[in-house]
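hi!! sorry for the late reply, been swamped w classes. u asked for the two structures so here they r. pasted raw, havent cleaned anything up. first the sequence of the first protein and right below it the C-alpha cells
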Amino acid sequence: MNGFFITGTDTGVGKTVVTACLSLLFKNQGMDVGVMKPIETGVDPKCSSTANSDAKFLMKVSGSTDAEEEVCPYRLKIPASPYQASEIAGTPIQPATILEQLKILQSRHNMMLVEGIGGLLVPITTRYNVADLALEIGLPLIIVSRTLVGTLNHTLLTINAAREHGLKIKGVILNRQEGGDLDEVEKQQGKLIEELSDTLILGTCPNIEDVSVEGIQQNLGKIEHAFQNIFSI
C-alpha cells in the first residue's frame, strides 16, 4: 500500500497545508489519492467548513468524494488533545474504528495520505498516542517542521520519538509559514537536520499566502520543484 502518515513537530506547524500540497502533487502524477484526518479537535461537527476543518479542506483540495465520517471518524469541539477533548465531550476514541475506516479508504485508492493531530506523543487515550496510531496504520512517516530557530530541537526530538516507536521515516518537509527571504540561520536548518539525524529532507514547502484550492494549484509548479526528493528511495 502506497502512502504516508504526515505528522508534525508540534501543533500549527502546517501539516494540513503540506498534506494538501502532496495530494495535488501525487494526483498530478496520475495517482488515485485518498486523504484521511482520523481525529480533529476544535471543530464543531454541526457547524464546520473548509475554513476551520482540516478534514473538509483536505477533501476539497484532493477532490475526495468519500464520506466525511470515513475521512474523519472523530471530530471534537473542544480545542485540546484528542484524549482531553474526548474526555470533556464524553466521547471515547476507539483506535479500532479509525483503522476500520482506513481500510475502507484503502480499498478505493492506491495512495493514502493520513494527517495526524499535533505531534507524535499527543495522547489519544491514556495509553495510546499518535505514534501508536501511526505504527498501526503502517505507512512511512513524513515529518513537517519549521525553518525558524528552535526547529532543530523540535525536529530531532520528533525523529528520536519516531525511531523509539519503530516508525519508518520517509523524511522531513520544512514548511515556510512566512514570506520573504530566509536568513543565514534558516538556510542551514535542513542541512543540519540531515547531518544530525541522517534523515532526508524531502523539500521546503513554499509559503502559500492564499491557503485555498486555487492558491495551492497556482503554486503547484513551485511545489513540484520543492518536493522532488519525495520520489527518492
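now the second protein. again sequence first, C-alpha cells right under
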Amino acid sequence: MEKSYGIYLAYFFMALIALNALRALFRGEYNAMVTAVLMLGMTVIPFVVAKRMNINLPWFVFFLVALALWIHTAGYVQGYYTTFYPYYDKIAHIVSGTAVAVLGFLGVIFVDKYMKMNLNTWFIIFFTLIFGMAMGAAWEIYEFLVDFFFGGSLAGPMQNSLNDTMLDMMFVLAGSIVVALLGVFWFKQHRKEEITQGAKIPV
C-alpha cells in the first residue's frame, strides 16, 4: 500500500461508517446497524488483500471503496436516499460504478499476471468497462429481487420506475467510462507489469 496522506481520506470515511453504526445502535435501529457494520467490514477487505498479497495499491483505491460504502450506509441510516431522492441515489451509483470499475481494472491485471494470459492493454480497458456495467446490472437485479420478495429495503422501494433503473445504469456506465479513459492514458506511459511488481499469491 502506498504511504500517502491520501489514505487518511479512506480512514475518514471508514470512521463515518462506524459512527453511523453507533447512531443506529443508540436509536434501536438494529437492521441499519447491521448494514453499517457489514459496510465497515467490506472497507477492510482491500487492506487485507493488499497486505497478504504484498500489493502496492494507490491510496485512491481504498478511498473510493470507503466513499462508496459510506454513501450507501448514510443513505440507509440517515435516510439520505429518501431525503435527497433522486439525486443522492444517482451520486451513489456513479461513485460505486467508478469504484467497481477500478477494482475490475486492477483485478484483471492481477489475473493476467497469475494466469500468465498475456492480455493486451485494449482488452484490459474493454474488460474494465464491461465489468463495471455487469456489476451495475447485478446490483439492479438485486434491487428488483429485494422489492419483489420483501417489498423494499430500509429506505423503502429500491426501484421506483423503469426510468429510475435506466438512469442508475447510465450513471454506472459513466463511472466505468471515466475509469476506462483514465486507463487508456495510464497505459500510454506505464506498463501493466508495474502494478503487479512485488505481488505474491498468499499461501
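hope this helps!! also noticed smth abt the second:
The chain has two domains: 1-78, 81-203.
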